[in-house]
Amino acid sequence: MTDTITTTTSPDLATMLARRAAETPDTVAYSMVRPTGRPRDDELTYGDLEIAARARAAAMADRDLGGRTAVMLYPSGLEFPRALLGAQLARVRAAPVKVPNRRSGLLRVRAVADDAGATTILTTAAVRDQLVAQFGDAPELSGLSWLCTDTVADEVASAWSPRIIVPDDVAMLQYTSGSTGMPKGVVVSHRNFCANAEDLARRWPVADGGRVVSWLPLFHDMGLLFGIVMPLWSGAPAHLMAPDDFVRRPLGWLEAIAELRGTHTAAPNLAYELCARAAVDARPDLDLSCLRATISGSEPVRWDTVQRFAAAFAPYGLERSSISPGYGLAENTLKVSGSRSTDQPRARWLSAAALADRKVVGVAPDDPDATAVVSCGPADGLTEVTIVDPGSRTRCPDETIGEIWLSGPCVAQGYWQRPVETAETFEATLADGDPALRYLRTGDLGFVSDGELFVAGRLKDVIIRFGRNYYPQDLEQTTETCAPGLQPSCSAAFAVDGGATENLVVVVEVNGRILRDTPAEQLTAAVRATVEARHGIPVAEVVLIRRGTLPRTTSGKVQRRACRAAYLDGTLARIGSGS
Fold it and tell me: What's the structural domain count of the chain?
C-alpha cells in the first residue's frame, strides 16, 4: 500500500498556492461565469487569492480557530476558495455544508456543527443576513457565531503569521450522507487532498493549456476536488457556474464550455441525460470540439445515457473519446478510477440473470437478458483496487463480482468521532493477506476485467429473492421507461420483508402532466408488468409520489434506505393508492 506521494514536493494546498502566487501572480485561478460563458464576477488571480487567503487566515486566528472545526456556508462563488485556502493556512478544519433554504437544511447545518464540535460559521455577510431574516431566533442557530469572511480587508494579510502544516493533519471534514443514513464527517488530511489532486491530474491532464468549467456544488466532494483543488494543483483556470444556473437550463453549461473553450468538465450521469434530452434546442453554432475530458461520475453511469449524449452532440464537435466514466467516493477523498480521455467509453453486455447470482456472463447486446455495465476505467492510479468476497474476506479472481475494497494515500482517515464505524469501514483486513494492511470497504459491488473496474451496485441495496440478487439501479432504469415524461433517477427500488422472502417495492415520482397522459392505474400496471418481464422479479407494490419528494442526498443521489424507511412509517407523499 502506498503511503507517500513521490511525484511532488508540495505537502499541502497552502504551499501550492504560495508557489503559484510567487511564479504566476497575475494568472487567473478562478472566475464565476454565467451559463453563456460571459463573466459575472471579477476574476481571481493567484496573487489576489494568496493575499485574500492570508487575510482570512489572520481573521480566523484572531478568533482562535486554529486546530478547531468551523462550518463553511457559502454559495458557489469566489469567496469559497478564498475562505477554504484561508482555513488551510490557519489549520482550521473546514466542514462545508449547503446553504439552507428551508428548515430541513438548517437542521442539517446544526447536526453537522454539533457532530463536528463547531461553534463558528464561516460565511458571507449576505448569507448571514439571509439566514437571520429567514430563520430569526431558530434554536438551530443558538450558540453559533458568525465570521463573514467577505468583510475581511486584504490589509489584514500582513498580520498573518505562517503555521507549520503537517501532511497528516486534518484539512477538512467532508460530510456525506451517502445514499443512506445520517451525515458522517469523512476526515480528509492534507496528504489525502494532495494525493487525490495528483491522481485526478494524472488521469485527466489539464496543466498544458487546459480550462476547467464546472457547475458542481462546491460543498460536495466532486465539486470541491474537481472545481477548486485539482485546478489549483495543476495551475489551470477554473470557470465556475452556479448550480442553480445549470438546473434552470442545462444547455447553458455546454454553451459556457464552448464560449470559454473549456477542456475539462465533470458531472453526474443525470446531467448528461438532461443535456441529451435538451439537445434539440442546442444553438447551431455550439462548438464542443475543445473538450478533452468529459467526466461522468458521482452516481452509476448508464450506458444508454453515454450513447445518447455522444450521439446528440457529435454534430457539435464532441469527440466520443472525451467521455470518461469514473468511480469515486468521499471516503477516498474523491477519485478511485476513471477512463482515459484518449480511450473510447465502453460497456460489457452481461446476462442480468447471471448478475443476479453474482456471476459475470457475457451475452450479445440484443439478447433479451442483456444488461450493460459501464467500465469506470483502469484501476491503475494511486488507489489500489481489490475485489473481495465480503463473506470470506478473500480476494476474488477477475470476472467475479465482489465488494470493492481500496487502499492507498487517497483513503481518508475515517469518520469523525465514530470509532466503531471507522473500524468497520476503514480498517478491514483480508483473511488471505497481510494483517497489517488496512482497507476501505466501499459497500459497492463490482468486478475487474482486463484491468478495468466495473461497478455493479451497492452491497446493502441488493435485493435478494429466493437466493437471487437483483440490483436496484437496473430495476429503476427499467421503471423510467414505463411512461412518457418520467425523468432520470425518478424512482427507488427496495425490498421489504415478505415473510418467506423479500418483496420488491418501487416508488416513482410523478407530476400531474404525466398522470394526465398515463393514469395512475395504468402506470402502476405498466411498472409491474415491465419490471417482471425484463428482470423476472414480481413487484409487490408500486407507490406513486409527488414530484420532488423522493429522498435524496445533497448531491442528488436517491436515498433508497431513507425511502424504504419513509415507506414503512407511512410518511411518503403518496398520490392515489398505488397497487
Answer: 2
